[in-house]
Amino acid sequence: MAASRWIIASLALIVLGSGWIWVSQVPADAVPANRSPQPAVGYPAPDFELTTLSGEPFLLSELQGAPVVLNFWATWCGPCRRELPSLQAAHEHYGEHVAIVGVDQAEAPATVQLYVDQLDLTFQIPMDNDQVAANLYNVMGLPTTFFIDPDGVIRRVWSGEMNSITLAEGIEEISQ
């Protein structure tokens, strides 16, 4: 009699456990590939096309397959100016394994070029007229940095000035 109670209890646990697993499954739209692009962690990064400071076309989706550090900045922004050397150092350190992209915000190319030459910046600098930052990425202040994994999914967003440690941690996260 006691054995049959254990069998019934075991069967009930199996049925209830299976039901719990089925009810608790992750919804299909929680998988990043099924989500529409949004400027939020866990979502694909919105694609955009701009012209770089050197006059070349820049399309974010062309970088898919590599980790991307997407930084929105301006020359008049003090915290931006302080973190740009760290971005340049990361660009030199990681080379082509990580794409460092600095999207300048609505400034004259001549102004940006003078500053780029001063700091000897060599990473890509697309020129935004605030359409990408404001409309696609909801950037509310500068600097703002998005860490995008090789699949094009945003894994971290950092608002404000980064130091080299914060930058390295973000790159580590998207490089795995």
Written overview of the protein:
With 176 residues, this protein is α/β, with parallel strands linked by helices. It has one domain (34-175): Glutaredoxin (3-Layer(aba) Sandwich). Helix content is 39%, strand content 19%. It has helices spanning 2-23, 78-94, 109-119, 131-136, 164-175; strands at residues 49-52, 57-59, 68-73, 99-105, 126-128, 144-148, 154-159. The chain has a seven-stranded mixed beta sheet with strand order 2-1-5-4-3-6-7.
Main sheet overview: 7 strands, mixed
Return the domain count. Answer: 1
- What is the CATH topology classification name? Glutaredoxin
Overall form: elongated
Output the CATH class name: Alpha Beta
Radius of gyration: 23 Å
Helix-strand sequence: HEEEHEHEHEEH
Number of helices: 5
Please describe the topology of this protein.
Elements: H1 2-23, E1 49-52, E2 57-59, E3 68-73, H2 78-94, E4 99-105, H3 109-119, E5 126-128, H4 131-136, E6 144-148, E7 154-159, H5 164-175
Parallel strand pairs: 3-4, 4-5
Antiparallel strand pairs: 1-2, 1-5, 3-6, 6-7
